[in-house]
Structures are given as structure tokens and as C-alpha cells.
Amino acid sequence: MTGTDKADWPLYEVFVRGKRGLNHVHVGSLHAADDRMALTHARDLYTRRNEGVSIWVVRSEHIAASTRDEKDPFFAPSADKVYRHPTFYDIPDDVPHI
Amino acid sequence: MTTTHSAEVPPPEQHLQEHFDATIARDQRIEPRDWMPDGYRKTLVRQIAQHAHSEIIGMQPEGEWITKAPSLRRKAILFAKVQDEAGHGLYLYSAAETLGADRAELTERLIEGRQKYSSIFNYPTPSFADVGVIGWFVDGAAICNQVPLCRSSYGPYARAMVRICKEESFHQRQGYELLMTMMRGTDAQREMVQDAVNRWWWPSLMMFGPPDGDSPNSAASMAWKIKRHSNDELRQRFVDMTVPQAEKLGVTLPDPGLRWNEERGRHDFGTPDWSELKRVISGDGPCNAQRMERRRTAHEEGAWVREAASAHAAKQAARARKGAAA
């Protein structure tokens, strides 16, 4: 074990667009020496059965993420604004098309 | 502002534990950046790594037949299947890495024999019928094990399992189809199938692990919902699923105790030789040394490719920097 591959091949996150019209979705990660190799490996690993029409790879270290727990006060500001939802407003039943 | 209500806040560790427990209780998934108990993380890393190693080592028994497959069709199928096993290993290493495990280190642990892989891959594949029986039994057993893992409490593991299970169905079906083809052939071919069935049946039942009473890690894994069913329950499911398939195929499963139990609505079956499982797991199976040697050699002989790719990437990056500076 040389140990060089551990140091030199960075981790990439892989995002695949399943078909035209859909978003790219995170599918997993892989190690590659550079961007081009990451794309080729991502194709071989995550789209062996036509799972994708487009792939993004991004170095994991370049992803900034919200705080460690996904259900924490970071998202609290969006929880107390019920007036952002259409159901907050009472409209009489006999008003059409609204 | 930050200190006014600190007196009411419980100690952070306890609060985090409660939040974790509640997430598990609600049947929601734990995600990589969530807090989790050390034991949960360790158990997962161990299980996922062993699972990944099994996929990688699992390429070997069948891989031996790629160059000897009897037709181009079978060769192409086998190639695709073995490539899938590599892919499954990589999905799983990727999941392990979300827990802070280092992929290169996991490979190292496998090569040094410090981490295990499934006992089943330590059995030899002397005939082409073995390829069929592995698809039918071994991948069939894997499906029994893995379908419930699609609901495992750790998100990245569960998602990797969804992907794997989709592909596993091809593996099982190509195996069964291969055997059906051989069963329509000559007497000698039918004997090859029966012989392979005889050799693989008991080791396949052992794939589910020791009996529940003797499975040290099961209880915690079940409580954490990493695992959803006990070893014995999964083993029973596999037997119930396989018996009618064996009848259709026209082979006999080598267990005189195997019979339908009307009362239970399930099959009764014999007890695997647990001492054999212990022996194989501890390194003394028919092919353990050979599998490890092959894996080590592949890793070492591939070193120059990894180094060359690194050197190429470094050179390209240097050129790009020069170009930008000019």
C-alpha cells in the first residue's frame, strides 16, 4: 500500500439527471485523480443502465452545507410564517376559480 | 442573548441522544451530518464495510468463468454481472465514507485480513453450473437479506441498497435461466447442476449468519433499525422462496429434513453445520487464502495505474496554472 492514492485522489460527489426535465439528484461519491476521470468513473459506476442523461461531479470539499443536524433552528424562521401558505386565507366557497 | 435560557437546556449529549432516538422511533432516516451515538456509527461502518468487501471479493468465484463461458451470450452476461458486483462494492464504500470512514483504509483492512467478508465467497467454483447456482442461491439469499435493508435507518446505506436490489434481480434471474438451459441439456449437464446445488445449498443457508441465539451484534442492530429481521427469519424466508423454484427446475435440495409444515405454513429444514461456518469465517475455508491473495495482488499490481493517474492530474493542473499566469 503506497498511501499516495489516499492523499492524491480527492473525493467527488456525483449528481445525475435521470432524464430531460428532471433535476440532477445526488447519487453518491467516488474518488478520482481529476475532473475528467471523475466524470468517466461516475458514468461507469452510476449509469450502467441508462440511469442518466447528464452528470455533475463536484469535489466534496467544495460543498458548503448547512449545520450538522437537518432539523435544527437554522430552518426555524420558515416555520412560523403560516401566511405564506394559500390555505391561511379564508375565501368563501362560492367565489369561483381561486 | 445567548445565555439567558441556558439553564433550561439539557446537557447537549442527552438532548442529541433524545433527538436521535426520536428520529429512529418515528422510522425516519439518520443522515450523515446528524448526530449519532458512537456505537451506531461503529456498527454501521463495520457492517457496510463487510458488505462492500463481500461484493468486491464476490467478483472472484464467478470471474474465473468469464474467459471460459460457453458462449458469447453467457460471457457478456457474466461480464455485466461481475461488473455490477464491483459497482455494488463502490456504492457501499461510498456509503461508509459518509460516516467518516476512509475508503483506502477500508481496503487496507480487508487486504490485511482485519475486516471480514461473507463466508460464501470462500467456496470454489469448479463447474459452470456453479455460476448458475451462485446467481440463484447466493444472489437469491442476498436479495432476502438486502430488501429489508432498503429501509435501514441510515439514509445513505438504505439508498445504496435500493440501487443494489434493483440490479440484484438480474443476477438471480440470469442464474436460474442458465440452470434451466442446462437442465434441458444432457444427463451430464443435469448432473452438473445437481452437484452444484448439493455443494452450495448449506453454505447459502449459512450466509444469513449464526442462529439468533448466537448472534452477538443482532440485538443492537435491530434496536437501531439498521437491521429489520433476524438471521433465522431471513433464512426461513429464503428456504420458503427457494423450495418451489427447485421443484420447477427439477433438482433436489440436499436436506432430508426439508418438508412443508402445514401448521406453521412454512418449511421445516435441517440445521446447517455451524462449526463449518465458524471455520470458514475464521479463515479456514476452502478458498480464503486464494481470495485474499488475489485481492492483494490486484491492489498491488494496480498501484502504478493509480500513481500514473495522479501524476497526470498533477501535470495537467500545473499546466493550467501556467496558462492562467501567462
If you had to describe this structure to a student in words, what would you say it looks like?
The complex is a heterodimer of chains A (98) and B (326). Chain A has 98 residues and is α+β, with helices and mostly antiparallel strands. Chain A has helices spanning 4-8, 35-46, and strands spanning 11-17, 24-31, 54-59. Chain A is built from 2 helices and 3 strands. Chain A has a 3-stranded antiparallel sheet, with helices on one face. The termini of chain A are far apart. Chain B has 326 residues and is mainly α. Chain B has 13 helices and 2 strands; from the N terminus they run ααααααααααββααα. Chain B has helices at residues 12-25, 38-57, 59-63, 72-97, 103-111, 129-149, 155-183, 187-206, 218-223, 231-249, 274-284, 288-301, 303-325, and strands spanning 259-261, 266-268. In chain B, strands 1-2 form a two-stranded antiparallel ribbon. In chain B, 34% of the residues are buried. Chain A binds chain B through residues 1-6, 8-9, 11, 27-34, 37, 44-45, 48-49, 65, 67-71, and chain B through 19, 31, 33-35, 80, 83-84, 87, 90-91, 94-95, 97-98, 102-105, 108, 111, 156, 160, 163, 167, 299, 303, 306-307, 309-310, 312-314, 316-317.
